[in-house]
Each structure stands twice: as structure tokens, then as C-alpha cells.
Amino acid sequence: MQINSNYILVDTPKALELALINLRQSKILSIDTESSGYYTYYPRVCLIQINSNGKNYLVDPLKISDLKGLGPLFEDEKILKIFHSAQDDIRALKRDFSFRFKNVADTMISSRLLSMEQSSLSFVVEFYHKVALSKVEQKSNWEIRPLQKQQLRYAALDTAYLEAIWLKMEEELRKRNLYDEAKSEFEFTASEDYVAKEGEGFSLAKFPDIVNFTPLERRKILELLRYRDEKAKRINKASFRVFGNDKLSQAVKEQPNEEKCIEWFGKKDGGEIYKLLISEYNDPIETSELSKRHGEDLNEDEDKRFQNAKKWRLRIMRIRRMEHSLLPSNKQLITILKANPQTQEELRALNVFSPWKVENYGPSLLAALQGLNYDSMVNRLSPVRSKEAFLAKRRKTQNHSSKEE
């Protein structure tokens, strides 16, 4: 397949009308988006890339107020829509434009099912096409207009290879009897409703070197993060661009006076941050609390069932020789155990994960949650990679972790 890096910029209603004439004739569309999330607290889609029959259309939603013409394309069951990391793009497109999607394929999920060494777009393109995609524009500010030529070329290449890659992946998925599983995951991703995230837009556990702070220092870090997060919301700016983590760490470690805080953070913020630093706190944060996640405040019985669910997940991972990202997450497991479904139909009604997972994992998961034996239910599951490849990947991961420590 000939790869074309040229592009057609669609930034007027008339240009969109012309583009739609061609796009409606397509059987396959490759889609990607560029958003403002690296710069703004509330991200928005700033560019929609659509590749069709070797043509790269770059649709500018900041210049065109009415994009409803794209809706029928995305919902058309006869047109295949290919994404890399469909969940991210589809959520963004649903959030900003209320689009709906049917007949989707995802090369990132496919790369994981096919046990590729990495699942990034750049790795997959290099693996199949021996081409190294430039990452220079990866952190561009996509809100600024006019967009530069190098940004547009970069954006066009993000979809240029997807169709050719998917056709090879589809063949391999079918050959290894993984296609039905993949298709179910794609359909589940496409059908998920967009739900706005609630709560704090940060995680204390992910703050750099948080385990090296004292419990009292961790409490102060948390208060500073809350202050930064609230300001980021008000001015719609990415949190790390309001105050850097390194400066917050320095403030907590050095305990500067008010004058120094004002020098570092400005008059208004410096004064407030100084008050947070000198306040008395009676609730220091112990290391054990860092591993807790939202929703994991379980009672004794729930925690017992949660541990059973995690053991079940580890068993599935070993039997299928697959990476953890393809298995139910802690959040999903907790949602299920709190709902306490007794049958597969009740589990299906929760809409927590794909129909394939309900059908193939449901019986053994329900048994695990009830403390019952489920050996016969999982031993029939087919592995996604050879035992040798699985062990080699695990050794590589363990060695990498050891080096980081």
C-alpha cells in the first residue's frame, strides 16, 4: 500500500462539504485526534485526522463550528473505523461532539493481544513499515492558529499507516484465534458512554519520589497539590504548568519563609502556599495509604472477595500468558464485587467489560468471588503467546524494574 504524507486541510464549511463527498464513498477510515490536554486543564479536540483511500484529511474543529456531517460516517456499520488507542480518541470525540461509533478496530489493543514488545503507535509503525515517526510535534500546542506545516505533516502521518497495519494484524488475529476476542473489545470501546471524571485531577501516589517524604511532608504535598489543582481549573491550564512538582517538593523540604514563597510562586499564590506550609496537620499520610485507590475502602468481607478476584486475575494471566492491561482492572473488579452479581446475566448487565470477557471469564470470576473452585473453567482458555515468549517478557520486565531500583 502506498503511504501518502500529504494532507488536505479542512478548515471551512465548504471544505468539509467537499471532503464528506469523498469520505462517504470509503469502506475504511483511519482516525486520530490532537487535543490541548498538554496545555489546558480541560482538554478539547483541536484537530481530527481522517485517512481514506490514501488521502489525509485534517479537519479543524476550532475553525468549523458544525461538524455533524461526520456523525453518519462514524455510525455507519458498513465503514470500518481504525484507531490506535480507540478509547482515548472516541471518548474525546464523544465528549466534545457527542459522536457515536460503530464498526471500530484498534491497533493498540491488537498489538497487546498479539504480544508485541510495545504497543505505542511509533513502535507499531516501525515494526511493520520500518519507518521511525518523528515525535518532535508530540507536545505541540494544538490550540494555536494557524497550525504550522510541520504540525500538519506530523498529524497526517499518525493515520497514514493504520489501514495497512490493521490488515496485517487482522490476518494474524484470525490465524491465532484471537479475532473474536479483539472484535468484542473494539465493540465495547465504541459503545461505552462518555462519563466525565469526578474528583481530584491528580494522584498523590504518582507524585515523584513520594515514598521518600515523611508522613507529615506527604500531607503538605497533598494540600499543595489541591491548591494547584483548584487554580489550574480556574485558569484552565495544565496543572504542571501552574507550578512544577520540583518547586513544590523544594518548598516542602526547605520550608521557606513567606518572602521566599512569594519570590517562588508570586505574591498571591506565595502567601497562600506559605500558610499551607506552616499549618498544623493532625493527619499525616503513611506509606501504606499511598497504595489505596478511590473505591478501595472495602469492608472485611469485600476485601476477602477482592483478594480472591486478584488471585483469579493472576491465574488467568499465567494460563493465557498475557499482559495485565488486557485483564479486568482493580476498578472493574471492585465495581463487580460491590454489585455482587450471582449470574452471568447479572454480570453482563453491569456493562463493566466486553461480552467476550463476560462469556469467557464470567463463570470463573463469579466462582472466585464466592470462594469456589474454578479450575475446570479456566484451564480451557487459550494462551495468547508461547510459554517461552511469556517467560522471556517477564524476565525482561523484572530486569528493567531491578535497574530502576
From TrEMBL:
One GO biological process term is: nucleobase-containing compound metabolic process
Entry GO MF terms: 3'-5' exonuclease activity; nucleic acid binding; nucleotide binding
Pfam families to which the protein is assigned, alphabetical: DNA_pol_A_exo1, HRDC
Q: Which residues form the HRDC domain?
A: 299-379
Q: Which PROSITE patterns match?
A: HRDC
Q: Which domain of life is it from?
A: Bacteria
This chain's protein is named Ribonuclease D
